[in-house]
Amino acid sequence: MTALTLIKGFQKPTHDSQRVFRQLLKAMSEPGTLVCVDSPESIDSLHASTFAVCQAMMDQQTPLWLSPHFTTSNIKHNLHFHTGVPIVEDSQQALFALMGPAEIDSVERFPHVFFQGTDEYPETGCTVIVQVQSVKDDLGEGVNLRLTGPGIETAQLVSISDLSPTLLDYLSNQTGERNGSFPLGLDFIFIDQNQLVCLPRTTQVEVL
Amino acid sequence: MISKPMSDTQKTRQHWMSVMAKSNSDSLIKLSNVYMDQQDFENIRPAEVGLTQIRGRMGGTGSQFNVGDMTITRCVVQSAKGHYGHSYIAGRDKNHALRAAQLDAMLQDPTHQHSLMENIIQPLAHTLATQQAQKANNVAQTKVNFFTLVRGED
After folding, report:
1. How many CB atoms lie within 10 A of CB B10?
2. pLDDT of residue A139
3. A8 vs B76: CB contact, 8 Å cut-off?
4. How far apart are CA A195 and CA A133, in angstroms?
5. In Å, how far are A74, A179, B9 from A119, measured between CA atoms?
6. Do the Cβ atoms of B44 and A11 come within 8 Å?
7. How far is A84 from chain B, CA to nearest CA, in Å?
8. How far is it, in rounded angstroms, from Cα A185 to Cα A119?
9. What value does the mean pLDDT take over residues B22-32?
10. Which Pfam families match (chain A) (predicted)?
11. Max CA-CA distance within chain A?
12. CB-based contact (8 Å) between B10 and chain A?
């Protein structure tokens, strides 16, 4: 058996996870707003920022699905060690999914591969965490999006690097699926090395 | 449940972890202070207090039931040489948990193991054994034997 590496988690678990939770709450309620999150160390392909979100949000009752890019024994070991999160093979059972931007194209039947909630409990839909190269709250070289909807006064502009066409079609409601299934649906967190932006299912997305 | 038999290394480690967890926090810290100079540790999981559920079996062999909850403190550190030290102790003494984790990491390092075993673990184990024997003695003095009288019907 090769020894697995354990990385440092939050150094003040209570305060650190509360701070990250507060930042996520802000980002989720004001879509398009960038917030910073941080944790002491990263592991394999998992950024420290993403690990911070995982530590703040996940526990024994929030099954997590990992895309092939993140399915390494080190990542699984550390997530399980620090949060106790159960990692599931079946994406339908997951409350959180963690994936790279390009992997959405290779996932079959997106977005139905993830659980979107039920009419009684729409909030049980999956939250998809997409780890990308960069997010900016301005127009940039990545994919530029114009966001409107609840939590946004007029419109928010964000630029997210390398989003796949499948995901863009879904987010901008090209197929009519995203708005058609509302209030069921998926919520997204796009996260780079140190900051993140959220796209909850209420946000209307226009690709510029 | 059939579990694999433990290796000798595991047994020894289980022994020192158990001794450190059961010992008095002050004596553990006092005995080990001299070894802590110039030791560098990273907090993988800072000492944190939590609950664990205690389960038991009636008479040691019956079916499992929940006895109740117990406060424990756990801690994980990594030494500069890369050893991971774990500790789980009863109660909410974070310094006890931290020191036990640090010593667990150092005890895995062959350069320290011998002197630490001799100067910390063995004295503590000795104290524990003495306390245990004393308690057993005190309890034994109050032992009551019950006899069932034969009613003599035959």
Report:
1. 11
2. 86
3. no
4. 11
5. 37, 14, 55
6. no
7. 13
8. 11
9. 95
10. PhnH (PF05845)
11. 56
12. no
Residue among B48, B76, B84 minimizing CB distance to A13: B48
CB-count burial class (<10 Å; 0-12, 13-18, 19+) for A15? exposed
Ranges under pLDDT 70 in chain A: 1-2
Instruction: Name A112's Cβ contacts closer than 8 Å, sequence gap at least 6.
Output: none
- Tokens 């080990």, residue located: B32
DSSP class of B121: I
CA B75 – CA B48 distance, rounded (Å): 7
Give the CA angle between residues A27, A29, A34 to the nearest 5°. Answer: 20
Is residue B75 classed as helix, strand or coil in its secondary structure? strand
The β-bridge relationship of strands B41-57 and B64-79 is antiparallel
Torsion from C-alpha of B36, B40, B43, B49, nearest 10 degrees: 0
Residues ≥6 apart with Cβ < 8 Å to B110: none
Question: Cα A167–A153–A96 angle (5° rounding)?
Answer: 35
For residue B111, count CB atoms less than 10 angstroms from its CB and return exposed for 0-12, middle for 13-18, buried for 19 or more: exposed
This model's pTM is above 0.90: no
Residues of A whose CB is below 8 A from B46: 10-13
Chain B closest-CA separation from residue A198 CA (Å): 29
Q: Is B26 on the interface with A (CB under 8 A)?
A: no
- Cβ–Cβ contact A51 with B under 8 A: no
B43 and A11 within 8 Å at the Cβ level: the answer is yes
CB A22 within 8 Å of CB A7: no
Q: Residue B87's beta-bridge partner residues?
A: B75
Residue B66: strand pairing partners: B55
Burial class (CB in 10 A: 0-12, 13-18, 19+), B37: exposed
Contact B43 A8 (CB under 8 A): yes
**Beta carbons of A9 and B44 less than 8 Å apart:** yes
> pLDDT (tens digit, 9 = 90+) per residue, A186-208?
999 999 999 999 999 999 999 98
| Distance of alpha carbon B34 from alpha carbon B119, whole angstroms | 11
